[in-house]
């Protein structure tokens, strides 16, 4: 009986340790809520399931995975809602020529650890391409952000903070670019 | 009876300490005094790979200027309020925005609601010289103690750049340098005497910043 309990205890410990090892890092959003200029334009933000559920896995260290999909989708939704008067995330049923369709795509993501770079900080590089389509206009715009954060807490906390910073920069560039672009679209 | 009294006393202490744990959540924007100018103190990020993590200068300068009745907006609060502008862009060479941002129409609309009169960029660092002297400690059955003397010279530099927001003008740069010495005496117990170079340089620069603000 004691042996069985002991074995069960060890088994639970192993499962627990294994699940902890493979836990994906969650990213917090640090994008301020301040109201921005609402442009009198309708937008359909096309967020694909791949984009929303994307999980980054480090090419060499497979235990390092980051659930970035939900955070990046939220950033795009938040910025669109700040800039535009009406934002739809569901495909519109009727065809409306005045609607601008925006499709974001993550084109590049690089995360480097201090052990890889020889620096004392974690680094991230994010690149998104945004397809903006309207009746008379179609453009592909790229948004790039680089950030670094010193390694001083645990890996998951450092990486989470780093991604949060990187996404904030993406949000900032996205908002400025959209305000500039939409006056042309 | 005595037991109940102590229990009540402990409860009262606990409740009062708990209520003190939550300071007012209002931002400095809500608490500012409109008679005095509003200054945003913003930390200038380095272009180098190794960023200095010294927030001492920001904290110290904030305290110094608050004592002189200026309304101060902290780095985080200012960057949040000015979002999407004033985000350091490390992907390009221009880490922080240049003064040209004050000419940007979109930014002007944003800053109007903030009511910021001045933006002060602050950066600083402390360089340490080699340590001199030695302190040795020993522990035995009869007791223990330390003996010796060690010191380390240091030099703190703080730089500031002042922007006049309504006039969209750079008012100037200020630099302050101060030297100090960290000392550690040990006679049975070690007595550290921290260096005051950072404090001195902060006082110097706050004085020159106030003079510059008063001139304009």
Written account of the structure:
The complex is a heterodimer of chains A (185) and B (216). By secondary structure, chain A is α/β, with parallel strands linked by helices. Chain A is built from five helices and eight strands. Helix content of chain A is 38%, strand content 33%. The radius of gyration of chain A is 21 Å and the shape is elongated. With 216 residues, chain B is of the alpha/beta class. Residues 18-26 of chain B have low confidence and may be disordered.
Key traits:
heterodimer; A: 185 residues; alpha/beta; 5-stranded mixed beta sheet; 33% strand; elongated; B: 216 residues; 5 helices
Largest interface: A-B, 24 and 15 residues
Indicate the overall shape of chain A.
Answer: elongated
Largest sheet descriptor of chain A: 5 strands, mixed
* Low-pLDDT stretches of chain B: 18-26
Radius of gyration of chain A, whole Å:
21 Å
The helicity of chain B comes to 25-40%
User: N-to-C terminal Cα separation of chain B, in Å?
Assistant: 68 Å
Q: Going across the major beta sheet of chain A, what is the strand order?
A: 5-2-6-7-8
Number of strands of chain B: 5
Separation, N- and C-terminal Cα atoms of chain A: 74 Å
Number of DSSP-assigned strands of chain A: 8
How much strand content do the residues of chain A show?
A: 25-35%
* Element pattern of chain B in H and E: HEHEHHEEEH
Largest sheet of chain B: 5 strands, mixed
């Amino acid at each position: 009986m004691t042996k069985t309990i002991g074995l069960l205890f060890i088994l639970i410990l192993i499962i627990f340790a294994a699940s902890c090892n493979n836990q994906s890092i969650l990213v917090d959003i640090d994008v301020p809520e301040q109201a921005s200029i609402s442009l009198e334009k309708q937008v359909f933000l096309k967020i694909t399931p791949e984009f929303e559920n994307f999980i980054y896995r480090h090419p060499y260290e497979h235990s390092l995975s980051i659930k970035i999909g939900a955070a990046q989708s939220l950033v795009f939704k938040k910025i669109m809602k700040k800039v535009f008067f009406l934002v739809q995330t569901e495909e519109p049923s009727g065809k409306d020529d005045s609607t601008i369709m925006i499709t974001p795509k993550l084109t590049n993501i690089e995360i480097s650890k201090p052990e890889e770079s020889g620096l004392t900080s974690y680094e991230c590089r994010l690149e998104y391409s945004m397809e903006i389509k309207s009746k008379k206009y179609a453009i592909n715009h790229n948004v790039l952000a680089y950030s670094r954060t010193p390694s001083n807490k645990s890996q998951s906390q450092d990486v989470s903070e780093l991604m949060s910073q990187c996404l904030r920069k993406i949000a900032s560039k996205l908002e400025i670019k959209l305000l500039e672009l939409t006056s042309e679209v | 009876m005595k037991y109940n009294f102590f229990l009540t006393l402990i409860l009262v202490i606990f409740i009062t300490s708990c209520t003190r744990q939550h300071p007012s959540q209002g931002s400095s924007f809500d608490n500012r005094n409109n008679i005095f100018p509003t200054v945003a103190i913003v930390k200038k990020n380095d272009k180098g790979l190794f960023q200095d993590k010294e927030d001492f200068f920001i904290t110290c300068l904030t305290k110094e200027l608050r004592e002189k009745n200026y309304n101060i907006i902290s780095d985080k609060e200012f960057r949040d309020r000015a979002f999407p502008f004033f985000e350091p862009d490390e992907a390009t060479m221009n880490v922080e925005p240049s003064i040209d941002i004050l000419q940007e129409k979109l930014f002007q609309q944003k800053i109007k609601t903030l009511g910021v009169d001045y933006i002060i960029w602050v950066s600083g660092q402390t360089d340490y010289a080699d340590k001199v002297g030695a302190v040795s400690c020993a522990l035995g059955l009869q007791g223990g103690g330390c003996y010796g003397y060690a010191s380390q010279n240091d030099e703190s530099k703080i730089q500031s750049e002042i922007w006049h927001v309504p006039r969209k003008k750079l008012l100037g740069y200020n630099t302050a340098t101060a030297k100090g010495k960290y000392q550690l005496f040990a006679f049975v117990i070690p007595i550290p005497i921290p260096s005051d170079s950072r404090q001195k340089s902060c006082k110097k620069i706050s004085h020159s910043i106030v003079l510059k603000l008063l001139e304009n």
